[in-house]
């Protein structure tokens, strides 16, 4: 894993956006895996800026989102579909037919999940997967004890995640769906690159356990230790529990120029 510690979330988001931009310039039909939550918002803002000011072209890019709540219509204000259109897709030149999210209203959930996996394969696989991390170490909605071999499927949120996400539902936990469809950990591990973002002191414990702890189903993100190209962009606050933070800074400072946005 490569740990990139930046002074703040803006700097870390910009650094991660440079990786996305480099991929899209080199491979105009790149397949991006995207995440929701507050963490990737600055990355998406920077992608929008790169599109508007530097002509970054998303016209051939395809996207697959990690997850969606079950039971929310697409146009529900808190659906991840709405989130993605409001915060990214409506402001770049992506084609609606190239955008994919799990269908939270699917009548046949297992069939819809299998079709999602097939669509990822048909698109050529995910080149770069953006990840946030839950306070309990979840990625997508793969809660603790999720199988490392899991594929897209239905999951039940933990009570902690329901509490954490209530802030998006007027602070009312009773409004948060308890079920979701999420890409599996196996799906995420198939991406050619994983790019995790984590900001703030509330994520410091999960980040340290992910990067330096044992690989363990209780900390789903720790499986990224087994991924060949996993990059973790964090701010100073999220780095406070890392034992080897000085080493990660030393590595980054000594990177040759050609490797910086690689
Ligand atoms: C949700 C999403 C995750 C996200 C997590 C953290 O549970 N399903 O993909 O990483 O929230 O959210 P935040 O970035 O708001 O802390």
Explain this structure to me?
The chain has 262 residues and is an alpha/beta fold. The protein has a single domain (2-252), classed as Rossmann fold (3-Layer(aba) Sandwich), CATH 3.40.50.1360. Helices cover 32% and strands 16% of the residues. It has helices spanning 9-26, 41-54, 80-87, 109-122, 159-165, 185-190, 204-212, 245-253, and strands at residues 2-6, 31-34, 62-65, 67-69, 99-100, 128-131, 153-156, 179-182, 193-198, 230-235. A seven-stranded parallel beta sheet has the order 1-10-9-6-2-3-5, with helices on both faces. A three-stranded antiparallel beta sheet has the order 4-8-7. Strand 2, helix 2 (41-54) and strand 3 (62-65) form a beta-alpha-beta unit. The radius of gyration is 17 Å and the shape is globular. The two termini are 13 Å apart. The mean pLDDT is 96. Bound molecules: 2-amino-2-deoxy-6-O-phosphono-alpha-D-glucopyranose.
